Amino acid sequence: MKFMKLGSKPDTFESDGKFVKYAVSDLDSDVTIHVGEVTFHLHKFPLLSKSNRMQRLVFEASEEETNEITILDMPGGHKAFEICAKFCYGMTVTLNAYNITAVRCAAEYLEMTEDADRGNLIYKIEVFLNSGIFRSWKDSIIVLQTTRSLLPWSEDLKLVGRCIDSVSAKILVNPETITWSYTHNRKLSGPDKIVEYHREKREENVIPKDWWVEDVCELEIDMFKRVMSVVKSSGRMNNGVIAEALRYYVARWLPESMESLTSEASSNKDLVETVVFLLPRVNRAMSYSSCSFLLKLLKVSILVGADETVREDLVENVSLKLHEASVKDLLIHEVELVHRIVEQFMADEKRVSEDDRYKEFVLGNGILLSVGRLIDAYLALNSDLTLTSFIKLSELVPESARPIHDGLYKAIDTFMKEHPELTKSEKKRLCGLMDVRKLTNEASTHAAQNERLPLRVVVQVLYFEQLRANHSPVASVAASSHSPVEKTEENKGEETTKKVELSKKSRGSKSTRSGGGAQLMPSRSRRIFEKIWPGKVESSNKSSEVSSGSSQSPPAKSSSSSSRRRRHSIS
């Protein structure tokens, strides 16, 4: 830290108690000055020789036939006045980054200019500021911090502006040219580590591009905003470094507890709104702020009552990075807000889908697939969802984002497990979201034995499971066609009939190898088929003559009747 000593005489100021100070001299004090709560017993001559304002105040006091002067609006208070008074006496005073702002404002108040005395205090302070303080990184930061309590004096004297210019100019220099000390204790890893490694390997001391972040983040929010605005508008600072500075500032100043957030809502509101204002523009191709950070910032903005425009801006930014989000980060928000974010993501995806290059980027990087998996996992883990919110959120995800429905099946199964009170029609609505043909073998096997699923869904699972097991051309045709999970009773009967016929054909062709078609289905499947058409599965275990003699499928009426009896029996 730089400092400057003025004067050569010893300091003879002494205190009489806590609130009375006097200058020891052979001469008696001839003026009493009250500055705030402290009283100074001083001499007129040294004060009048340096201060134009003191000349007027003493003259006004003499006209009132008094030697007492009261100053209520002294910038910097009694401490700054004392330094100015000692300078008038020629006593030794030391100026540094911590007191120079207050003394400069006090000297301006007392009008200690060159027309009062050559080489006066204002002149000497300005020389020290320009030649020392503003050339030092640490001192510039400290002085900028001190200017806040001395507004508007520090602003009018351009101390704030000059400090901001000094700090921002140093931030924008080439890191390789830095010779001053700075604070850098953070240990980052992965994408958060913003360090240039372009120097030769033989050089051991690599200065990171974000070397300035910790020192600047010590500033109060208003000064921090002004510095960062200059840095951002220059266009010379990497947006990733700016985003890192904002993340660090939030971590440094934002309370972690809910109680502190709400109790200091006003200051935290200013912080959030400032950070959102300074955020580099987010896009899907280039990530500056992580989606996790944006989601947490969005949560805080809601808690502290940030402006609606700020929240909307955050929702838009989150939607652009939704593919990077984690379920844990989504779960801190209400489902209505998650719905809005997903809706915004899908709207943006649809709007730019006409751009072939963008579409290739989205598909090539699996953005849609990531969002599809994210929403399915969110549906499975959020126990606060209602049936309507579950269905609405699931329906936002397009088919292209769900080539496999295992995640959706898991979410549906979990929801039914946590809501045993669901009616048959509600289960039907839930399962209507799922295409059983897009289940993997593992999920299909689980679904075939799932007692919570409606019977018609289990039958469809068994049907397509059997098609896959037989590897028949019919299976390929059926799997390539599109049809919803929910079928009419007639279609379901026709599909089940085809399944039985297919099973019988398979048994006829594979009896010598497998010993019976019934072995192609798990025990759960056999039990369901036995209850739909009693005796049919048993007939598959008879001799090949009996099996070939019973190859005709049962009437559709019988199938429908048995199916209804089965649904009644498990309801």
From TrEMBL:
Residues 29-97 form the BTB domain. Pfam families: BTB, NPH3. Residues 540-562 have a biased composition (Low complexity). Belongs to the NPH3 family. Pathway: Protein modification; protein ubiquitination. Residues 484-504 have a biased composition (Basic and acidic residues). Residues 210-468 form the NPH3 domain. Keywords: Ubl conjugation pathway. PROSITE patterns: BTB, NPH3. This is SKP1/BTB/POZ domain superfamily. Residues 475-571 are annotated as: Disordered. InterPro entries: BTB/POZ_dom, NPH3/RPT2-like, NPH3_dom. It comes from Arabidopsis suecica.
